[in-house]
Design a protein that fits this description.
The complex is a heterotrimer.
Chain A lengths: L1 E12 L2 E12 L3 E5 L6 H8 L7 E6 L2 E2 L4 H7 E4 L11 H11 L8 H11 L12 H13 L5 E5 L7 H16 L3 E5 L3 H4 L4 E6 L2 E6 L1 H7 L1 H4 L15 E12 L2 E12 L3 E6 L5 H8 L7 E6 L2 E2 L4 H7 E4 L11 H11 L7 H11 L15 H12 L6 E5 L7 H16 L3 E5 L3 H6 L2 E6 L2 E6 L1 H8 L4 H9 L8
Parallel strand pairs in A: 3-8, 3-9, 6-7, 7-8, 13-18, 13-19, 16-17, 17-18
Antiparallel strand pairs in A: 1-2, 1-4, 4-5, 9-10, 11-12, 11-14, 14-15, 19-20
Chain B lengths: L1 H15 L3 H19 L7 E7 L4 H12 L3 E5 L4 H9 L5 E5 L3 H6 L4 E8 L3 H15 L6 E5 L6 H32 L1 H6 L5 H31 L7 H25 L3 H17 L12 H7 L3 H15 L3 H25 L5
Parallel strand pairs in B: 1-2, 1-3
Antiparallel strand pairs in B: 3-4
Helix pairs in contact in B: 1-9, 2-7, 2-9, 7-9, 7-10, 7-11, 7-13, 9-10, 9-14, 10-11, 10-13, 10-14, 13-14
Chain C lengths: L1 H16 L1 H21 L7 E6 L5 H12 L3 E7 L2 H9 L5 E4 L15 E5 L3 H26 L8 E8 L7 H31 L1 H7 L4 H30 L8 H25 L3 H19 L11 H7 L3 H15 L7 H21 L6
Parallel strand pairs in C: 1-2, 1-3
Antiparallel strand pairs in C: 3-4
Helix pairs in contact in C: 1-8, 2-6, 2-8, 3-5, 6-8, 6-9, 6-10, 6-12, 8-9, 9-12, 9-13, 12-13
The chains are: A alpha/beta, B alpha/beta, C alpha/beta.
Subcellular location (chain B): Cell membrane
Main location (chain B): membrane
Membrane topology (chain B): Multi-pass membrane protein
Chain lengths: 485, 352, 369
Amino acid sequence: MKVIEVKGISKYYGKTKALHEVSFEIGQGELFGLIGPDGSGKSTLFRILTTLLNADTGTASVMGYDVRKEYKEIRKRIGYMPGRFSLYQDLTVEENLNFFATVFQTTVKAHYGQIKDIYEQIAPFANRRAGALSGGMKQKLALCCALVHSPEILFLDEPTTGVDPVSRKEFWQILAKLRTQGMTIVVSTPFMDEARRCNRIAFLQEGNVRGIDTPAVILDRFRNILCPPGLQRDIDNTETRTIIRVNGLVKQFGNFTAVDHISFEVKSGEIFGFLGANGAGKTTAMRILCGLSLPTGGNAEVMGFDVYTQSEEIKRRIGYMSQKFSLYEDLNVWENVRLFAGIYGVPDKEIPPRAEEMLHRIGLYESRHTLVRELPLGWKQRLAFSVAIFHRPQLVFLDEPTGGVDPATRRQFWELIYQAAHQGITVFVTTHYMDEAEYCDRISMMVDGRIRALDTPAKLKEMFNAKDMDEVFRLLAREAKRNGN
Amino acid sequence: MTLRYLIEKEFKQLARNSFLPRLILLFPCMMMLIIPWAATLEIEDLRIVIIDNDHSPSSERLVHRIEASPYFKLTGLPDTYRDGLEAIEKDRADMLLEIPRGFEKEQVNGRPASALVAVNAVNGTKGGLGSSYLNQILAPAGNTSIRYLFNPHLEYKNYMVPALMTMLLVLLCGFLPALNVVGEKEAGTIEQINVTPVSRFTFILSKLLPYWLIGFIVLNLCMLLAWLVYGLTPSGNIFCIYIATIVFTFVVSGLGLVISNYSATMQQAMFVMWFCMLIFILMSGLFTPISSMPQWAQCITYANPLRYFMEIMRMVYLKGSSLTDILPQLGTLAIFATVLYLWAIVSYKKQQ
Amino acid sequence: MKQFIAFIRKEFCHILRDRRTMLILIGMPIVQIILFGFAISTEVRNVETAVLMPSSDAEVQRIVERLDASEYFHVKYIVHSPDEIDRLFKRNRIELAVVFPSDLNRLRMDAEDIQLIADATDPNLAVTRSTYANGILHTALNAIKRTGTKADASPSLIVSGKLLYNPQMKSAYNFVPGVMGLILMLICAMMTSISIVREKETGTMEVLLVSPVNPLFVILSKAVPYFVLSLINLTTILLLSVFVLQVPIAGNLFSLLSVSLLFIFVSLALGLLVSCLVRTQVAAMLVSGMVMLIPTIILSGIIFPIESMPGILQALSCLIPARWYVDLVRKLMIEGVPLAYVWHEVTVLLVMAIALIGITARKFKNRLE
């Protein structure tokens, strides 16, 4: 039985084509995946199916109801989690959950079994306002809110972006359980391991459906884009100068210890991966090293400068790219480069030739007069990274730089990181993609504000007797106490 | 010079905004063209009903005299006082005059006749001025000669226009910076700036300078309109106005930035600013004279930067005061500017 | 129903958690009432005066003392040359100057020989101030004359005045209705529209639209807390004006309240309409600020009388709900006229309410876009 039928749907935003003649069918009880690069029209498709947008041409029906005319019937029967699921920042975790449960005419209790695994991780923060949660925690809460009711069809638009691997796995276990109960699920994802868990996937590119089939077939047919080969790094790092030295660093928020006596060293020229579950304290530690936040105790030196007293000296010598994309959206590419070059004191005369060279290298020269707002996410990330190292710092901090983009784009991004590392820039990076973790020279694993393991990926795998980093991560994150009760 | 790049950025963002440049140009025009006409406390055409109980030639003469006056409009001649009162209640008249029976006889006998005037005094200004105008018609007395200085034709617009300019400067140069830093907070770009070596001093200055220029543009636009539409030009030196404006825009945009630094959301910044502006405008002497306020309220006005600028504007525009005349006010404003600018720097935190 | 209550509870959380905004919303009417009631007035009081006295003879001295003794004038400077007067005016030190001729005595103490110079930057005040000064000088001169010669002929007409509704000429009578109109408009229209648009901006509206809840419910639940808040403010204003400003409620409290409810309704509808039309919070703020609040302040007769405006603006003011409401409150609360006398204004507000709700319902979108 077909529950979703889409025939020849097209949608334009002004002149830009978002969807072009899209047709497919989804059967009852299917777990259907949508994959494709940023800007391929996935979110638009979700919005059309959830009756939030009207398509320009074509017809679509959900459970036999027309999306245009019988939207009320559809809305009674479906659940939806938008890509940018926004919680009420000024309500507490519990209040958010209760509110959404009531809105969907159910109670948290009735479906607690469904969300138990994920909710238990955020339960310790039940009385904290959603706005004060870390990025990944917010996403987990949003997942709980989306799963709290049992609709007949569930639409999930990139639900796991920014979520750590363990929680992602738990989330997909829940989806699998729901499917056995007969629920139809449509989900989009940038993670290929997640795509593999679907019954069928559709690959979208620039508004066109390029193929619909089982994951194995699609991933094989488009493996250049979806499963690019790994990167090879020839380590010629002979230098052993220490660039970051952290000793017993502590950061407390009230009586909550976000960073609990961590100590480590980063050598010059290294790509240092900083891993951990959501809320393990990665971002907090990184913000201290960048001079954005003052530690509560312990000491840390970056390039020989003390984070307590010489944060401005540090700032002069580092690059930083944050989780939240933070170039000026209302300036164009060229202006952003110029602004940050100017701020870091790159000499006037050097800016134009260097900027030109850089833009050519990352393939943005043609779009140099485009407003940053209009660039696809992957391009923005590449630009943000290039801007962060434009003033040739010795050290660059990257906080989840590749969230929400497809594997090919992420690979391109890592090529840039390798280039930078090759020039001798030390890279300090946090990520939730375990394939990216393999690209790092050394990795530290944070659990509950402490560093549990620190070594090269190969040694870590050996130590934990695991076949890949994903497994290492799961083994370590399982020890987490802070989230568990 | 990082400052140059930051300012360049502010201007580009401003120019790219689809709304703000239009707001900066159109809003002053609208206000300058409409408000002086609307915001007038000139009292004319007061609606009056007259109850003539005497029906004599002299009472009729009196009625005609009132009818002929530019201040009054005769809207009815009811028969009884009760009818007249009803006219006021139903809002067909603002005041009534009752001429008693035997009005002429008393006058002929050389005795003073009496008449009753009743005014709807809900609007105090209207009531007060109305009854004093009527008094002048009914009982003209020998007057001292009065010279109205600086505004001989008693044009209310001359009074409003400089005040309006002040208000526009406050609204545009106060609200826009108040929304600016919070806007960057909400967009997340402030974090990117915070990890750069830009000093707080430079950053705040780069936020202030564009509004300084905007203030200047707005001022010139207003002065041009004042001249074209109302024929009003400053009687003092135009450079006094310029200097005062430079200092004053620093004060208001500094205030805006301070509020912005303390606010988490745009909405909050907007409301706090709105609240401050309300008090500042009401306590500045813009609509009502400061000397009429009780002593405690007058003390408060000393802490109101608007008060000083308002004085300067009226002094230079209408009275033709010179730089030395406005020096005390200008000095106070300069102190305000410095304090607020320093406060803005201190309250902007690069590190938590 | 359960959902509706959940929505309302959530809205109250939003309001109560943003302490600063809530304090301002509750505090704004109080501060306004206090400022208008106690600080701001156009009364003539303590007018800073300079006197030009070429010769210091005793009689002139007496007149000046008389002037200074009155609560209206405060003689701050006694100067001896016209230049000084000019300078004092230009330095904003004085608001009025009295110029005595050098030989007042010889000129038989005629009022015409004394010159009053008023700072007419504020024309109305200049007129009132000089009228007051004129009166005082007159009595003073007459008193001096009476001691010398016989009394003047008495005036031909004695006018007895009566100030209806506001015998003490309190400005509170005029502004209390204005403050009520302004505050209710601010809270109902501006706050409601911003809070709805915020949900659009943060994306939560998307989820709510897809939920089985009727979208109109969502919107209506937004209006309820602001409705409550405006009732609180209404009560505060009325209590403050009765007990602190001593402005009595002359009319029927019930009809006053029902009219206020009608106006709150109109403002809420206006807020909902704005929220349907704009996309971002900033736009909502600017639209409600520039398009609704400023015209309300200027054109509704709160500060400036509508009769003095040119015809076009008077016509324009008819479109502003606050104008009718302020009028109604003035009549019902202060003049105490019965409701039957004001059916005209009530009808206008009713028509506005129905029209606005009609337009909002038509403009309301069930989808994004």
